[in-house]
Amino acid sequence: MKRNPNRGEPCSVDGCVDAVVHFNLCSHHHYSARKGRAVKRLSKHTDTLAERFERYVERDPNSGCWLWSGCSSGSWGTGYGTITFRGRVYKAHRLSLMLAGRDLATDQLACHSCDTPLCVNPSHLWVGTHADNMADMVSKGRHRAGMVPRGSAVKTSKLTEIAVVGIRQQLASGVAKAEIARAYGVSRASVYFIANGQSWTHVPLEGAA
User: Fold this and answer.
1) One domain, residues 167 and 111
2) Is a pLDDT exceeding 50 seen at residue 126?
3) Is 101 left (phi over 0), alpha (psi -120 to 50) or beta?
4) Residue 70 and residue 141 in one domain
5) Which of 118, 138, 117, 99 is nearest to 56 (CA)?
6) Distance between CA 190 and CA 192 in Å, rounded?
7) Average pLDDT of every residue of the chain
8) Structural domain that includes position 9
């Protein structure tokens, strides 16, 4: 008895025309399924821009945010989503407004009401100028005049200024960086940058023992 009677037929994933290899799936989707990943249709040249955009959207039922899972301009959670379609690069949050029928002028920004850079939910976005966006940051306490947010004022920060003082004290006492990283739930690189004065430079050194 053949293990895979449908071998050679189109993959069972909607929109995928690659040939079945195992369990009614093509090699790509079978590999994704084995790894526990979401089995989504492959990117095809026949996709519309809206279909390509939707493939990289993960909806968070708690916050209502549509989190962008594709490429971004910074490390995950700190940058803004980007997408390339037919040779053109789009900013995902601006594209979301365009797809929702809200076109932006070149001098206008897609601003976040949820303060989550990777969110592309059009209901969490509003159109404004750079001045409008800066005023919004100030009103929310995320910005000081002439300075960008830093330290615990950064929404994605896992540490506080007090925690950084504690890390410095432990470093001075000879505690291993790996042990400190585990205790504070951060990477060893984060502790390394603190130890070498490459991050959290606004926290006075006098705070360390």
Assistant:
1) no
2) yes
3) left
4) yes
5) 118
6) 5
7) 75
8) 1-42
